[in-house]
Fold this sequence. Notes:
The chain has helices at 20-32, 65-86, 99-102, 121-127, 132-151, 176-180, 182-185, 188-201, 209-221, 238-248, 274-278, 288-301; strands spanning 52-56, 91-95, 111-113, 155-161, 163-165, 204-208, 227-231, 234-236, 269-271.
Amino acid sequence: MLSNQAQSLILPSTQHDASQTEREVLVGEYLKNKVHRVISMILDKAGEMCGRGFIDQTSLLILGQKQLIEPAFRGTPNVVKSCVKAGTVRRVVLTSSAAAVSSRPLDGDGHVLDEQSWSDVEWLTSENPLVWGYSVSKVLVEKEACKFAEENGISLVTVCPVLTVGKAPVSKVYTSIPASLSLLSGNDADLGMLKHAEKGGGGVPMVHVDDICPAEMFAAEEEAAAGRYLCCSLNTTVAQLACFLTDKYPRYPVKTTMLSGDLLEKPRVCLSSAKLIREGFQYEYKTLGEIYDDVVEYGKVIGILPN
Length: 307
Protein backbone atom coordinates (compact mmCIF):
# COMPACT_ATOMS: atom_id res chain seq x y z
CA MET A 1 0.00 0.00 0.00
CA LEU A 2 3.04 2.29 0.25
CA SER A 3 4.51 4.14 -2.71
CA ASN A 4 8.23 4.03 -3.46
CA GLN A 5 8.68 7.37 -1.76
CA ALA A 6 6.67 6.27 1.24
CA GLN A 7 8.93 3.26 1.71
CA SER A 8 11.47 5.62 3.19
CA LEU A 9 9.10 6.79 5.91
CA ILE A 10 9.65 5.57 9.45
CA LEU A 11 7.01 5.82 12.14
CA PRO A 12 7.55 7.91 15.28
CA SER A 13 8.35 6.32 18.61
CA THR A 14 5.06 7.57 20.03
CA GLN A 15 3.39 4.93 17.89
CA HIS A 16 5.20 1.95 19.43
CA ASP A 17 1.95 0.65 20.91
CA ALA A 18 -0.24 1.45 17.93
CA SER A 19 -2.04 -1.30 16.08
CA GLN A 20 -1.19 -2.05 12.44
CA THR A 21 -4.37 -0.27 11.35
CA GLU A 22 -3.45 2.79 13.39
CA ARG A 23 0.02 2.82 11.86
CA GLU A 24 -1.43 2.62 8.36
CA VAL A 25 -3.75 5.54 9.13
CA LEU A 26 -0.80 7.53 10.48
CA VAL A 27 1.25 6.97 7.33
CA GLY A 28 -1.79 7.84 5.24
CA GLU A 29 -2.19 11.14 7.05
CA TYR A 30 1.44 12.01 6.51
CA LEU A 31 1.20 11.22 2.80
CA LYS A 32 -2.11 13.01 2.38
CA ASN A 33 -0.58 16.16 3.82
CA LYS A 34 2.56 15.68 1.70
CA VAL A 35 4.79 15.68 4.73
CA HIS A 36 7.95 13.89 3.70
CA ARG A 37 9.95 14.71 6.82
CA VAL A 38 8.19 12.14 9.00
CA ILE A 39 11.08 10.56 10.40
CA SER A 40 11.70 10.02 13.95
CA MET A 41 12.16 6.93 16.04
CA ILE A 42 11.98 3.59 14.30
CA LEU A 43 10.03 0.43 15.00
CA ASP A 44 11.78 -2.91 14.62
CA LYS A 45 9.08 -4.16 12.27
CA ALA A 46 8.91 -0.89 10.36
CA GLY A 47 12.57 -1.29 9.48
CA GLU A 48 11.67 -4.40 7.51
CA MET A 49 9.72 -2.28 5.02
CA CYS A 50 12.56 -0.27 3.61
CA GLY A 51 16.22 0.04 2.86
CA ARG A 52 16.56 3.45 4.44
CA GLY A 53 15.72 4.72 7.89
CA PHE A 54 15.28 8.32 8.95
CA ILE A 55 15.66 9.71 12.44
CA ASP A 56 14.38 13.17 13.31
CA GLN A 57 15.83 13.86 16.74
CA THR A 58 14.23 17.30 17.08
CA SER A 59 13.54 18.01 20.73
CA LEU A 60 11.88 20.72 22.77
CA LEU A 61 14.22 23.43 23.99
CA ILE A 62 14.25 22.16 27.57
CA LEU A 63 17.15 23.25 29.71
CA GLY A 64 18.85 20.52 31.63
CA GLN A 65 20.42 17.12 31.55
CA LYS A 66 17.61 14.98 32.97
CA GLN A 67 14.86 16.29 30.70
CA LEU A 68 16.74 16.54 27.43
CA ILE A 69 20.27 15.20 27.22
CA GLU A 70 19.81 11.78 28.80
CA PRO A 71 16.61 10.78 26.91
CA ALA A 72 18.09 11.91 23.59
CA PHE A 73 21.38 10.14 24.29
CA ARG A 74 19.54 6.87 24.99
CA GLY A 75 16.87 7.12 22.33
CA THR A 76 18.65 7.77 19.05
CA PRO A 77 21.27 4.99 19.39
CA ASN A 78 18.36 2.63 20.09
CA VAL A 79 16.91 3.65 16.74
CA VAL A 80 20.14 2.77 14.97
CA LYS A 81 20.20 -0.55 16.83
CA SER A 82 16.70 -1.26 15.51
CA CYS A 83 17.92 -0.54 11.97
CA VAL A 84 20.79 -2.99 12.43
CA LYS A 85 18.45 -5.58 13.91
CA ALA A 86 16.03 -5.27 10.97
CA GLY A 87 18.80 -6.41 8.64
CA THR A 88 17.37 -4.65 5.58
CA VAL A 89 18.24 -1.02 6.33
CA ARG A 90 21.25 0.01 4.28
CA ARG A 91 21.42 3.65 5.32
CA VAL A 92 20.17 5.79 8.19
CA VAL A 93 19.65 9.53 7.77
CA LEU A 94 19.85 11.36 11.08
CA THR A 95 18.32 14.83 11.34
CA SER A 96 20.53 16.68 13.78
CA SER A 97 20.80 20.47 14.00
CA ALA A 98 23.13 23.36 13.35
CA ALA A 99 23.11 23.57 17.15
CA ALA A 100 25.62 20.71 16.99
CA VAL A 101 27.85 22.81 14.73
CA SER A 102 27.93 26.45 15.79
CA SER A 103 27.48 26.63 19.58
CA ARG A 104 31.06 27.55 20.39
CA PRO A 105 32.99 30.70 21.36
CA LEU A 106 34.14 32.57 18.26
CA ASP A 107 35.67 36.03 18.52
CA GLY A 108 35.72 38.56 15.72
CA ASP A 109 34.13 38.46 12.28
CA GLY A 110 34.43 36.52 9.04
CA HIS A 111 33.97 32.98 10.33
CA VAL A 112 32.68 30.33 7.91
CA LEU A 113 31.70 27.05 9.54
CA ASP A 114 31.21 23.78 7.69
CA GLU A 115 30.66 20.14 8.62
CA GLN A 116 34.06 19.94 10.31
CA SER A 117 32.88 22.27 13.06
CA TRP A 118 31.40 20.89 16.28
CA SER A 119 29.72 22.74 19.12
CA ASP A 120 31.94 22.94 22.21
CA VAL A 121 30.38 20.67 24.84
CA GLU A 122 32.88 21.65 27.53
CA TRP A 123 32.20 25.35 26.98
CA LEU A 124 28.43 24.80 26.90
CA THR A 125 28.35 22.81 30.14
CA SER A 126 30.59 25.28 31.97
CA GLU A 127 29.03 28.54 30.72
CA ASN A 128 25.40 27.31 30.53
CA PRO A 129 24.17 29.73 27.84
CA LEU A 130 20.46 29.73 27.03
CA VAL A 131 19.28 26.33 25.65
CA TRP A 132 22.74 24.86 26.24
CA GLY A 133 21.19 21.44 26.87
CA TYR A 134 19.72 21.40 23.37
CA SER A 135 23.12 21.90 21.74
CA VAL A 136 24.85 19.40 24.02
CA SER A 137 22.21 16.75 23.30
CA LYS A 138 22.64 17.21 19.55
CA VAL A 139 26.41 16.74 19.75
CA LEU A 140 26.32 13.72 22.05
CA VAL A 141 23.54 11.98 20.14
CA GLU A 142 25.13 12.54 16.75
CA LYS A 143 28.54 11.26 17.85
CA GLU A 144 27.09 8.23 19.62
CA ALA A 145 24.90 7.32 16.63
CA CYS A 146 27.87 7.64 14.25
CA LYS A 147 30.02 5.48 16.51
CA PHE A 148 27.40 2.74 16.75
CA ALA A 149 26.69 2.80 13.01
CA GLU A 150 30.39 2.48 12.20
CA GLU A 151 30.84 -0.39 14.65
CA ASN A 152 27.91 -2.24 13.10
CA GLY A 153 28.65 -1.61 9.44
CA ILE A 154 25.64 0.56 8.61
CA SER A 155 25.85 3.77 6.60
CA LEU A 156 24.76 6.81 8.62
CA VAL A 157 24.45 10.27 7.09
CA THR A 158 23.63 13.32 9.21
CA VAL A 159 21.74 16.40 8.01
CA CYS A 160 22.16 19.52 10.18
CA PRO A 161 19.46 22.10 9.35
CA VAL A 162 19.67 25.72 10.49
CA LEU A 163 16.66 27.85 11.56
CA THR A 164 13.85 26.13 9.67
CA VAL A 165 10.76 27.90 8.36
CA GLY A 166 7.87 27.02 6.08
CA LYS A 167 4.39 25.56 6.12
CA ALA A 168 3.40 22.53 8.17
CA PRO A 169 0.08 20.65 8.49
CA VAL A 170 -0.43 21.91 12.06
CA SER A 171 -2.25 24.87 13.55
CA LYS A 172 0.13 25.38 16.49
CA VAL A 173 3.82 26.09 15.97
CA TYR A 174 6.74 26.90 18.23
CA THR A 175 10.17 28.57 18.12
CA SER A 176 11.33 28.97 14.52
CA ILE A 177 8.11 30.13 12.81
CA PRO A 178 7.04 32.63 15.51
CA ALA A 179 10.64 33.84 15.77
CA SER A 180 11.00 34.33 12.02
CA LEU A 181 7.75 36.34 11.94
CA SER A 182 8.33 38.27 15.17
CA LEU A 183 9.40 41.50 13.45
CA LEU A 184 6.05 41.50 11.64
CA SER A 185 3.90 40.23 14.51
CA GLY A 186 5.45 42.57 17.09
CA ASN A 187 5.81 39.76 19.63
CA ASP A 188 8.71 40.72 21.90
CA ALA A 189 9.20 37.23 23.34
CA ASP A 190 9.47 35.66 19.89
CA LEU A 191 11.82 38.41 18.75
CA GLY A 192 13.91 37.70 21.83
CA MET A 193 14.47 34.17 20.51
CA LEU A 194 15.57 35.53 17.14
CA LYS A 195 17.95 37.99 18.78
CA HIS A 196 19.33 35.23 20.97
CA ALA A 197 19.96 33.07 17.90
CA GLU A 198 21.91 35.93 16.35
CA LYS A 199 23.89 36.70 19.49
CA GLY A 200 24.75 33.06 20.17
CA GLY A 201 25.47 32.04 16.59
CA GLY A 202 26.84 35.23 15.07
CA GLY A 203 24.00 35.53 12.57
CA VAL A 204 20.62 34.13 11.55
CA PRO A 205 21.04 31.23 9.10
CA MET A 206 17.80 30.07 7.46
CA VAL A 207 16.42 27.23 5.38
CA HIS A 208 12.94 26.39 4.09
CA VAL A 209 11.49 23.08 5.23
CA ASP A 210 10.73 22.22 1.60
CA ASP A 211 14.47 22.25 0.98
CA ILE A 212 15.27 20.11 4.01
CA CYS A 213 12.99 17.29 2.85
CA PRO A 214 14.68 16.92 -0.57
CA ALA A 215 18.08 17.29 1.10
CA GLU A 216 17.31 14.33 3.34
CA MET A 217 16.08 12.28 0.40
CA PHE A 218 19.26 13.28 -1.46
CA ALA A 219 21.34 12.06 1.49
CA ALA A 220 19.38 8.80 1.50
CA GLU A 221 19.48 8.11 -2.22
CA GLU A 222 22.90 9.44 -3.26
CA GLU A 223 25.23 6.47 -3.08
CA ALA A 224 28.33 8.56 -2.42
CA ALA A 225 26.74 10.58 0.40
CA ALA A 226 28.69 10.29 3.64
CA GLY A 227 29.24 12.08 6.93
CA ARG A 228 27.53 15.34 7.85
CA TYR A 229 25.71 17.88 5.68
CA LEU A 230 24.87 21.42 6.75
CA CYS A 231 21.53 22.48 5.29
CA CYS A 232 21.50 26.28 5.01
CA SER A 233 20.02 28.41 2.21
CA LEU A 234 21.27 31.79 3.41
CA ASN A 235 22.83 33.71 6.29
CA THR A 236 21.32 37.00 7.47
CA THR A 237 20.85 39.16 10.59
CA VAL A 238 17.94 40.64 12.53
CA ALA A 239 18.75 44.11 11.15
CA GLN A 240 18.89 42.83 7.56
CA LEU A 241 15.60 41.01 8.09
CA ALA A 242 14.00 44.19 9.43
CA CYS A 243 15.02 46.15 6.32
CA PHE A 244 13.82 43.42 3.98
CA LEU A 245 10.49 42.90 5.76
CA THR A 246 9.78 46.64 5.97
CA ASP A 247 10.13 46.97 2.20
CA LYS A 248 8.43 43.69 1.31
CA TYR A 249 5.45 43.81 3.68
CA PRO A 250 4.58 47.47 4.42
CA ARG A 251 1.21 46.50 5.90
CA TYR A 252 3.08 44.99 8.85
CA PRO A 253 5.29 47.92 9.94
CA VAL A 254 8.39 46.92 11.87
CA LYS A 255 8.61 48.98 15.07
CA THR A 256 11.95 50.71 15.44
CA THR A 257 11.77 50.10 19.20
CA MET A 258 12.09 46.39 18.48
CA LEU A 259 15.52 46.94 16.95
CA SER A 260 17.17 48.18 20.12
CA GLY A 261 20.16 46.35 21.51
CA ASP A 262 23.44 45.12 20.13
CA LEU A 263 22.45 43.91 16.66
CA LEU A 264 24.77 42.89 13.84
CA GLU A 265 24.83 44.74 10.52
CA LYS A 266 26.01 41.58 8.77
CA PRO A 267 26.65 37.99 9.93
CA ARG A 268 29.98 37.53 11.67
CA VAL A 269 29.56 33.74 11.41
CA CYS A 270 28.19 32.04 8.28
CA LEU A 271 27.21 28.38 7.95
CA SER A 272 28.19 26.83 4.64
CA SER A 273 26.25 24.31 2.55
CA ALA A 274 29.09 24.05 0.04
CA LYS A 275 29.47 20.29 0.55
CA LEU A 276 25.80 19.57 -0.14
CA ILE A 277 25.77 21.81 -3.23
CA ARG A 278 29.08 20.46 -4.51
CA GLU A 279 27.68 16.93 -4.46
CA GLY A 280 24.72 17.91 -6.61
CA PHE A 281 21.92 19.24 -4.38
CA GLN A 282 20.04 22.37 -5.49
CA TYR A 283 18.07 24.64 -3.18
CA GLU A 284 14.67 25.83 -4.36
CA TYR A 285 14.34 28.65 -1.80
CA LYS A 286 17.52 30.72 -2.08
CA THR A 287 16.45 34.25 -1.14
CA LEU A 288 14.55 35.92 1.69
CA GLY A 289 11.79 36.78 -0.78
CA GLU A 290 11.31 33.16 -1.82
CA ILE A 291 11.36 31.99 1.78
CA TYR A 292 9.13 34.64 3.33
CA ASP A 293 6.27 34.66 0.82
CA ASP A 294 5.45 31.16 1.99
CA VAL A 295 6.07 31.85 5.69
CA VAL A 296 3.94 35.01 5.81
CA GLU A 297 0.97 33.23 4.24
CA TYR A 298 1.35 30.40 6.74
CA GLY A 299 1.54 32.94 9.56
CA LYS A 300 -1.82 34.35 8.47
CA VAL A 301 -3.41 30.91 8.38
CA ILE A 302 -2.34 29.97 11.91
CA GLY A 303 -3.07 33.39 13.41
CA ILE A 304 0.41 34.75 14.08
CA LEU A 305 -0.26 37.55 11.57
CA PRO A 306 -3.57 39.28 10.80
CA ASN A 307 -5.08 38.73 7.36
